[in-house]
Amino acid sequence: MKLNSIFIIGCRDAMPLLLGLLPFAILTGVSAIQAGMTPFVAQMSSILLMSGASQIAAASLMVTGAAPLVVIITHIAINFRYSIYSAGLSQLKLHFTPASKIAAAHVLIDQTYALTFLRCQDHKMTAKEKSIYYFGTAFPMWLVWQLGTAVGIFGGSLIPAHWDLKFAITLCFISLLIPMIKNRSIVVATCFAGITSSFTCHWSYNLGFLFSIIVGVLAGGTYTKASLRRESLELL
Predict the structure, then answer these.
(1) Has residue 143 got a pLDDT over 90?
(2) pTM of the predicted model as reported, rounded to 2 decimal places
(3) In the prediction, which pLDDT does 47 show?
């Protein structure tokens, strides 16, 4: 298959997720302005960071007058999941040059990781094809994110107050989670992480989010090891 065709397939697969990403981006732009950022700084933060959850959390902390160090730590804590995504992508053995690796890291978000992971699991692809598909999913995501935040920055005041854009965040992550639940280990990890997050959602600086991820990973890994051990005993 031609590489440009694979890029187009990546763009096509990303299209359904754009419906949830757009209101998320608009909300991020609105939050930045409410935190006191100038339009230029707000848009640059979106271009440089491209991480809605941490951008909104940082904006909320800025509104309450939190110290800069607290804002930075919160950013790091929320975005820690990207190190997990990076480890997952390394297992897929994508092909990146030094320059494209930097670009790939910049556009890595939950949606691009999920789509690439699912595609590589279901289709046999070369390392080059995998990397082209990855950028195919990332391009429309990046473009819509920048346009959406710009709408929130410059037109947020025109959005009706009764439009609950915050629900778009939940929709984004639900749409990513469901297709990835393919075996019992993932079910166990999902359940443990979800239950844990319901008890830790009130933790300061969103540390409950990070703790829930760790619990989910440990639970899924423990279940997998136990299953493999049980299968090996049955073969004896």
Answers:
(1) yes
(2) 0.72
(3) 87
Residue with tokens 């007058």: 65
> Does the pLDDT at position 151 exceed 80?
yes
Task: Locate the domains of the chain by residue range.
Answer: 3-180, 182-236
Helix axes 3-34, 110-122, angle to 10 degrees: 160
Q: Are 156 and 29 in contact (CB under 8 A)?
A: yes
The DSSP secondary structure of 58-97, one letter per residue, reads HHHHHHTT--HHHHHHHHHHHTTHHHHHHHHHHHHT----
- Are the beta carbons of 144 and 22 closer than 8 angstroms? yes
Q: What is the pLDDT of residues 19-60, one digit of tens each?
A: 878 888 888 888 888 788 888 988 888 888 888 777 777 777
Residue 230, burial from CB neighbour count under 10 angstroms (0-12, 13-18, 19+): exposed
Length of the chain, please?
236
